[in-house]
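Structure record:
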Amino acid sequence: MPATPFANGLSRSLRGTVLAGTERVLCHALGGSSRIRASRRLADRAAKGRSSTRFGLRRRPPVLSMRTAIPAQLSKISVARHQLRDHLHGWKLDPVVDGAVTATSEVLANAVVHGCHTASDMVTMTACCSGSQLLITVEDSSHQRPRVRRAPCEAESGRGLELVGALADRWGVMPAQEGIGKRVWMVFDLHHQAERAAS
């Protein structure tokens, strides 16, 4: 199966950017490492000016990425939320903005409430876009995996991860980049999100 534009773009970004270590996230999101290795080989050829129709390569736009870290305080989530919204608008991803920001806010809140021990702990959020997909990750210091709960209809909370599953095209959990804690990742397919926004 050919590598996706998202994999092609992200593999180039792995060298010296805020996405260092994101390869493991992408493997989870795309379902294995073989496509990552293939996309890296093709990306290396493209970076060296060896692009050709024989390999099905085209010049790709640069990877768009951002990273921010906030103290584990609910009052600080709005800072990350506004930064994410501003970047997504700046990247011209208007159809995905509301869903991505809402889902990310829920994951950030879950990380602050359940994934941190003190208010001085840090929660890190990254976002990157290349080709046709947007990847957002939220990292905290807890190894405890978030669980989807079936909240009663009358409950005013407890539906955060259900909402994430409804808004993101795919999401999952993996070990943190530095091996301490965990990272929740979400993938938004831009074409599907645009269709959803237009319906």
Remarks:
- The longest helix spans residues 94-114.
- Confidence is low (pLDDT under 50) at residues 6-21, 33-57, 153-157.
